[in-house]
Amino acid sequence: MIHIVLGVIVLWAAAATIMLPILVSRNRRAWRRLDEMLERVIEGRSFEDVTFDERELSLISNRLQTISRKLAVEVDRANREKEQVKQLVSNISHQLKTPLANVMMYEELLESRDLTGEQKTVFTQKLRNQTEKIDWLLRSLFKMTKLEQNAMEFQIREASIQETIKAAIHVVYEKAFQKGIEIRADGFDDIQLLHDPRWTSEVFENLLENAIKYTKGAGIIRLSLQRLENYSVIHVADHGIGIPGHELPYVFDRFYRGKEAEGTEGSGIGLYLSKLILEQEKGYMTVKSRAGQGSTFSVFLQNC
Length: 304
Known about the structure:
The chain is an alpha+beta fold. Helix content is 58%, strand content 15%.
């Protein structure tokens, strides 16, 4: 019996002596391949061509591949955000360049001793207008940044859409009156919709200001209400210069201004801000337009 046990021990030892180098060699290869995979992760290179037969090592390989893909997504997102910030700074510089230059010019003119009292009054008003424009731009850019980061506080509740629109009309009424433009609200029922009146009023201010700005001479801006199952739609229609079909996909982009609008004062921020506001309220906006025939912007707000 003792001889049999000794024989088993000898055979086991012999087998271990033979297998141990094989296992060590296999583990070394595995660790080398794992090290190669980690190096590829660090360098941002793909390693999906590297595979393992062993179950445990295959699990590690899959985990590393998942980590690598997530890192690639984060790096791509970071690069896109970096490019967006770069573009934003460039756009802000472009937006502020003209009014700042005008402010400096009017300041120099006002320092001249040859100006009459009337001329000083005119240049002082022009200086004030440019200063107000800079203030508006900075406030709009601040809002835009906060809205993009979801850092602005909204108080969405059941509120009268008629009162919200009245507040917007009150802000732009003087501009419309000076151009001989009439603002009509046809069959506008006083209904309750889910929105933040303060922010939503700003959406309609932007739409009405654009309609006034791009309507040449006298005209009519019509506001109408349409009830749907889940949303109510407020249409703002004008008979202005309109928007060419190829530009429609871009009108809600940040700082976008169409070719026809280049000669008119503006910043390309209003519609983008309006889109961000409506997104916070779980609403949205669409546009239909034809060049030379006016535009209709439609604001969708949730029913109560």
